[in-house]
Amino acid sequence: MVNPRLIGEALADKIGKVPGVALALQGAENSSFYDDAYPMRNSLARAVRDMAPGSVLTAWSNTSMATTEAMNQWSHRFLVYVRGSKDDSCLDLLHAIIDGIPSDNSGLKLRHAPVLAGTLSPQVTDANRLTDSEGVDYFEIQFSIEETGD
Fold it and tell me: Suppose 108 and one of 53, 97, 113, 129 were both cysteines; which one would form an S-S bond, judging by CB atoms 3.0 to 4.6 Å apart?
């Protein structure tokens, strides 16, 4: 099994290399991967709530074994949280992530090329509007990334 942290870091890096995302985030290095590290980072909900405007946070959600007729393979689910910059549309940022082409992806969309060796292309499984505890809306994109084998 490929370490989910490495896959998540690679996904966050690819998202940050989409020109439309970089532009929407105003050039800041605001695409990051959330990794639990007790005691300082032990609440994804808090990390999402504390996201600055104009930032993207990628987090691992779960890993399961996917069984097909041909083989067994690990499948990893990642959640990408999106907060738009001040006065910018979160939907534009969401679209840039889902349909964007990272600068190092040989012209392929993010969802059409693996983010890391040993994985298949990320599949967008869902995109949602959510509301934090203070009543502020943000977006969540769900990606599923399967490994090429076990």
Answer: 113
